[in-house]
Amino acid sequence: MAETAEANVNEVAAAAHAEHAAEGAAGAEKYASGGEYIGHHLNFLTYGKLPDGHLGFAHTPEEANAMGFWSIHVDTMGISALLGLIFIGLFMTVSRKATSGVPGGLQNAVEFVVELVQNSIKNTFHGTCDFLGPIALTIFCWILMMNMMDLVPVDMIPGAAQMITGNPHLFFKAVPTTDVNITIGFSLSVFLLILYYSIKVKGLGGFLGELAFQPFGKWALPLNLVMEVPAFLAKPVSLALRLFGNLFAGEVIFLVIGLLGYWQLPLNLAWAIFHILVIPLQAYLFMMLTIVNLNQAHQHH
Amino acid sequence: MNLNATIIGQIIAFFAFAWFCQALVWPPIVKALSDRQKKIADGLEAASRAGKDLELAQERATDMLREAKASAAGIIDQANKRANQIVDEAKDKAREEGLRIKAGAQAEIEQQVSQAREHLRHQVAVLAVAGAEKILQSTVDAKVHGELLNKLAASL
User: What is the pLDDT of residues A280-292, one digit of tens each?
Assistant: First the structure.
């Protein structure tokens, strides 16, 4: 699934570039073609160093590309932080006055989520780690909320951003998990935790020993390294691309449906209903895989 | 698809939120959950204990009732015995009293009988003198024959 999504990305991105080149000549009309509409929606509001040396927002995808690594996607990062704040705020209002008596409606909902996370950990994780519960809860709730932004009609938030700034060509992407940077941010965080707990539990020697002396014993050390190191490094990559691929594909299909005029209404509904399955599934999957990976980090082999 | 510093931003944001969650969100909610679990367990235990207590109390109540009945029967028995005793004592006293009264009456009767007899003796002496006077057509000197007559009366 992730691979097909990647293929989609490349295709669509190429189309977007071509259309943009055409736009330079064509001029004012907002979206000359469907390809441009989609391509425009796939660009980020990127803040970084402009070619003239000033800091500012990129006006074209080329400018964004030229900014290199030291630039930031203000739209997805901002919405990600906003959703994180909503998550923490919501859960904190509950935890502030959490009662062991009869819980109210909001506390009930929050307890449902917390128990879901607790049970997942209890069933999968066989070490002791006080930080894992909060990590898993944060991952699940935060990614769930990010994914849910996909159900907001694709033009609503970018349209609002364009209206507020008065710039009809403003790039704005509303779904953080369709930004590979955000999903890599998540998976690298998990990767750092895996490294930290592996070394903490097994010691640096034990951790490196697992990479070097398994599965074929110490005489096949190079072979072991060739097998184990990529498998270890593949964890965050697969984690990031799975989430990104699913959500990106979903968003692209929303965009394609958005091209269909009035026909988009029933199709949008149908795809949204299908997508409701994907949204919590991917959030849950990311959480579960985090727990599984951290469990492996805690286990001696 | 640019990889850029958003990744770093997201990592920082993730650890910040995870830390917040660990410090402020997770512990109170988990504590509330486990407290409630304990409360419910305690409640169920208390309920079953109360049932057992009730059973015990009922048993004790029946025991006490039985004891009370037994002691009441004992008290009634004792009372009956005492009553019988009192009646018996009263009967004895009454009999004694009766006997005493009867003895007194008998003594009085005997006294009166002896009095009457004495009286009669005197009269017999007088009668005998009178009879003898009639028979002898003469007066018997009381003084001469008195002694004789008195001897006669005493022998009666």
Answer: 999 999 999 999 9
pLDDT for residue B141? 66
Residue A164's domain comprises: 2-298
Q: What is the mean pLDDT of residues A1-10?
A: 45
Concatenating the DSSP letter of every residue in A43-92 gives: ---EEEE-TTS-EEE-SSHHHHHHT-SS-EEHHHHHHHHHHHHHHHHHHH
Nearest C-alpha in A relative to B32: A100
Q: Closest partner residue to A9 among B1, B21, B25, by Cβ?
A: B1
- The structure tokens listed for B101 are 């009264």
Which helix (DSSP H) or strand (DSSP E) does residue A57 occupy? strand A55-57
**A189 vs B29: CB contact, 8 Å cut-off?**
no
pLDDT in tens, A24-44: 333 234 576 778 888 888 888
Q: What is the 3-state secondary structure (H, E, C) of A257-270?
A: HHCCHHHHHHHHHH
Number of domains forming the structure of chain A:
1
- Neighbour-count burial of A96, counting CB atoms closer than 10 A to its CB (0-12 exposed, 13-18 middle, 19+ buried): exposed
Cβ atoms A61, A36 nearer than 8 A: no
